[in-house]
Write a structure and sequence with these properties.
By secondary structure, this protein is an alpha/beta fold. 39% of the residues lie in helices and 20% in strands. It has six helices and six strands. The protein has helices at residues 23-36, 50-63, 86-95, 107-123, 135-145, 151-155, and strands at residues 3-8, 43-46, 67-69, 128-133, 161-168, 171-179. The protein is globular.
Length: 180
């Protein structure tokens, strides 16, 4: 049975794709390395955003696995225009999965995008994989496998955060296994 660890990146200096980890974030990445040190890991995939890659690099180097960068793990774009009430808009997209805003992606579109990564892992030889991504896209992935996961759970995510998807005869179970 497959186990896929879903990791939200460590504390970063900002939201842009090239935002680096803070000093605290770098320390958190070292803590993640320790957390995963005795777990079998066959494959690591990361968002192309710098903060996601920096989150998992210490572990990847320690266990000798190359990090695969996958564009589908990029953070969801809610809108390309500035939304003063963006949290209200985001909350609405958890209730209406097809709602989208100018230049943005609906929850369903983002969920389908990240679910493709899970299905590829599921059909690969890897038994224990890690994916590193971002809060909103991770929330949508978790919602796919645990329908009750919503806006409030998104708000409760930490940097970093770790969930485990464990394959079951009915799909995947979701369990939060480490929180900062």
């Amino acid at each position: 049975m497959k186990e896929i660890y879903i990791v939200r990146h460590c504390q970063a200096t900002g939201q842009s794709p090239d935002a680096e980890l803070t000093i605290t974030g770098q320390q958190q990445a070292e803590e993640l390395k320790v957390f995963f040190h005795d777990r079998q890991i066959d494959r690591i995939l990361s968002s192309p955003f710098l903060r996601a890659k920096q989150t998992i690099e210490p572990l990847a180097e320690k266990i000798g696995i190359t990090v695969e960068v996958d564009e589908r793990l990029s953070e969801r774009v809610l809108s390309t225009t500035s939304l003063e009430d963006w949290q209200d808009k985001l909350k609405a997209t958890f209730d209406d999965l097809d709602l989208y805003f100018p230049g943005g992606e609906s929850s369903r579109q983002a969920m389908d995008r990240i679910s493709q990564v899970i299905e590829e892992i599921r059909s690969s030889e890897a038994e224990h994989a890690i994916i590193v991504a971002h809060g909103n896209i991770i929330s949508l992935l978790l919602k796919k496998y645990q329908v009750s996961f919503g806006f409030d759970e998104w708000q409760a995510l930490t940097n970093p955060d770790v969930y485990r998807l464990r394959e079951t005869p009915d799909g995947f179970s979701v369990e939060r296994i480490w929180v900062r």
